[in-house]
Design brief:
The chain is mainly alpha-helical and about 55 residues long. Helix content is about 55%, strand content about 0%.
């Protein structure tokens, strides 16, 4: 499979996918101007990585 330059495909377990869905629901209620129920998993992962970097 060919991916766009700069993208990496990752596999996520069902439990991790459920956690990301819970995060999407939480963020859509806490920050509706930035996230909604249709926010992609990619955007959620980027948000989590940014948050982790902020706290290092």
């Amino acid at each position: 499979m060919t991916l766009k330059k700069g993208f990496t495909r990752i596999a996520v377990s069902r439990a991790t996918e459920d956690r990301l869905k819970n995060l999407r629901r939480r963020l859509s209620s806490e920050m509706p101007d930035r996230f909604d129920e249709n926010t992609s998993m990619h955007s959620l992962i980027i948000w989590m990585l940014d948050e982790m970097n902020r706290h290092l």
